[in-house]
Amino acid sequence: MAIKNKKIKIARIEKDMTQEELANIVGVTRQTIGLIEAGKYNPSLKLCIAICKALNKTLDDLFWEE
Amino acid sequence: MAIKNKKIKIARIEKDMTQEELANIVGVTRQTIGLIEAGKYNPSLKLCIAICKALNKTLDDLFWEE
DNA sequence: ACATGATGTTAAATATATATTACATATAAA
DNA sequence: TTTATATGTAATATATATTTAACATCATGT
Quick check: pTM over 0.80? Predict the structure, then answer.
């Protein structure tokens, strides 16, 4: 089972955003955000960057491990 | 026409690697690397991370555009 | 107890990343 | 000129990301 991405969830909650709100901003569905946070997805670079910009973070902030 | 990703090409050449060598290390084909460098691809996060590790760089180093 | 909002999760359909194969060009070496 | 290596590019096939729709749980509020 994949590793959860808590960083996105934390950054999202810091901004008082629901999964659905974030999804609307970046142009995907709620389920896609949910699955990314659950670590069950391998999102595209474009989507990663869109999430970063919506949350005022960088790729390293949200998607880099180690 | 999409923006070229010169950062990858530069980092690859710094390591004296051909597109094919990098492709073998990260487990994709030469064409995939070529198209990413040409800016005509939207690679997966997993592939981006593999490329970063092969070139001793981070996601922000290679894939973040202000 | 009932309603509502946020989230987890799953099945099937669609869009797109990636592989495969092939052919082209450019460059450097023999 | 020929040979070999590195790269650009395109067509079709396959794998997988993402959508859509549906139903579930878990809070919190009324």
Answer: yes
CB A6 within 8 Å of CB A52: no
The ipTM is 0.90
Identify the three-state secondary structure at position B44.
strand
The dihedral built from the CA positions of residue B62, B54, A38 and A32, taken in this order, carries a sign that is positive
In chain B, residues with a C-beta closer than 8 Å to the C-beta of A43 are 44-45
Backbone angles phi, psi at B35, to 5 degrees: -70, -35
Please indicate if any CB of chain B lies within 8 Å of the CB of A3: no
The spacing between the Cα labelled CA in A12 and the C1' in D2, in angstroms, equals: 62
Q: Which of A41, A53, A62, A63 to mutate to test the interface with B (most CBs of B within 10 A)?
A: A63
Q: What is the pLDDT of residues B40-58, one digit of tens each?
A: 999 999 999 999 999 999 9
Under CATH, what is the fold of the domain B6-63?
434 Repressor (Amino-terminal Domain) (1.10.260)
Nearest Cα neighbor of A1 from A46, A43, A35 is A35
